[in-house]
Design a protein that fits this description.
This protein is of the alpha+beta class. A hairpin with an 8-residue loop joins β9 and β10. α1 packs antiparallel against α7, α3 packs antiparallel against α5 and α5 packs antiparallel against α6.
Length: 421
């Protein structure tokens, strides 16, 4: 068989180029530590590696989201802690104000202190989130949550809870609406609220009539018997006459239905501190109510902590001279103290929820770390190079290439002219 010189050169150079290309490919695999340089190397593994890489990227984004969620919840937790401390301070101020030895001037000093507490509470309610928004404004993050009014403060936000996707199947709230934190406080004992005659001056009320009755917050004795109606407890006092002491009686009226309780009912004799029970509820009245004095019972309702503190401020500024003044002050202080206790419990409840979310984020972080390790292991199995095998192959290809180059050199030098003298 005859082989031309051109064929010899073409075949030799083609073979050397192939061997050189294979060597270069192995060298690139070693330099990148990747088995697959192009999807064509292993289409199935390449597709799977792409899926795993995308999942790994999503998991990395969840890590960022959880970090942002932790920052937001930490800010809220700090604000809630300060709010709880402030509510406790106001409760301590109420205890001070209840000291009967204080003068009206002393209570005015406490009122000045309370004004500062109201300002502090408003500042906490309008805490900024550090990103140009506010913590407690719901979805309306750029709107200041509370604006001061004569009656306390008005909520300008909404009821929304901002959320972040912190896991493949978990969206976590990162905020709470201001109405939930500062306006979710039940008056009274949470079921019903008792109060002295709420008639505002200058109309006659318990104070102007000289009554010194003090009503308790009361308790529920039979939840089934509760009606949810409003009631009025009206007193009648027959003045004392020579040899005959004064006689005080009261009549309970269901003002929702306009009937006495029970119906019909006769006035009951009043004994200070004796329990008054009807329709599943119970409370007592102490002191000396005046003729036509009135107390009310109504279903509990939600009240803003700002209204409670503002009402308390008004009570501290009123005169508390005489038994009637002390009774008015005591009734106001008791009402404020009861609501602020509820407000404190409510803040603790929201703070507990925030803590549980932060704890869940810790668990999700741990699970995310495990998942990231799993993704990295899977990618390594799909993409990483068997270095020992690759080095062995590289050495073999290098030897083969050298042999091919040397043999090509010798073959290319074969010529009859070398043998002609």
């Amino acid at each position: 068989m005859r082989i031309s010189t051109k064929s010899t050169f073409d075949i030799g150079s083609s073979q050397i180029n192939s061997l050189q290309g294979a060597l270069n490919r192995t060298q690139m695999q070693l330099s990148t530590n990747r088995r697959m340089l192009t999807p064509a190397d292993d289409p199935v593994a390449s597709a799977r590696a792409l899926e795993v890489t995308q999942s790994q990227s999503i998991n990395t984004q969840f890590v960022t989201n959880r970090s942002n969620a932790k920052n937001a919840l930490s800010q809220e937790e700090n604000a809630l802690k300060s709010t709880g401390d402030l509510v406790q301070d106001v409760n301590e101020l109420i205890v001070k104000a209840g000291n009967p030895t204080l003068t009206d001037k002393d209570r005015l000093s406490l009122a000045t202190e309370l004004e500062g507490r109201i300002t502090d509470m408003l500042g906490l309610a309008n805490t900024a989130d550090g990103a140009g928004g506010y913590l407690f404004s719901g979805y309306k993050s750029t709107t200041m949550p509370f604006t001061p009014t004569a009656a306390g403060a008005t909520y300008q936000g909404d009821q929304g809870q901002r959320t972040l996707q912190v896991g493949s199947a978990r969206s976590l709230p990162t905020s709470d609406a201001g109405s939930t934190v500062f306006e979710n406080n039940m008056t009274g004992n949470g079921t019903f609220v008792t109060a002295a005659d709420p008639t505002p001056p200058p109309a006659p009320n318990n104070f102007t009539r000289g009554g010194s009755g003090i009503i308790s917050a009361g308790t529920v004795t039979n939840a089934v018997a509760l009606t949810g109606h409003k009631y009025s407890i009206d007193f009648t006092v027959v003045p004392a006459t020579p040899g005959v002491p004064a006689v005080s009686t009261y009549l309970v009226t269901d003002t929702t239905l306009g009937v006495t309780v029970p119906s019909p009912a006769a006035p009951a004799p009043y004994l200070a501190g004796k329990s008054i029970s009807f329709d599943g509820l119970q409370f007592d009245i102490k002191g000396v109510p005046a003729d036509q004095d009135k107390f009310t019972v109504a279903p509990s309702a939600k009240e803003s902590v700002f209204k409670t503190m503002t009402d308390l401020l008004g009570a501290l500024r009123q005169s508390a001279s005489g038994e009637a003044g002390q009774a008015r002050l005591t009734n106001s202080l008791n009402a404020a103290h009861t609501i602020l206790d509820t407000a404190y419990d409510n803040v603790l409840s929201v703070r507990s929820e925030v803590g549980s979310r932060m704890k869940e984020l810790d668990y999700l972080d741990s699970a995310g770390d495990d998942l990231d390790i799993q993704y990295a292991t899977t990618l390594s199995d799909l993409q990483d190079l068997n270095v020992v095998k690759a080095i062995s192959l590289f050495t073999q290809q290098q030897t083969t290439l050298q042999a091919a180059q040397q043999s090509f050199t010798k073959v290319s030098n074969l010529s009859l002219f070398n043998y002609i003298n």
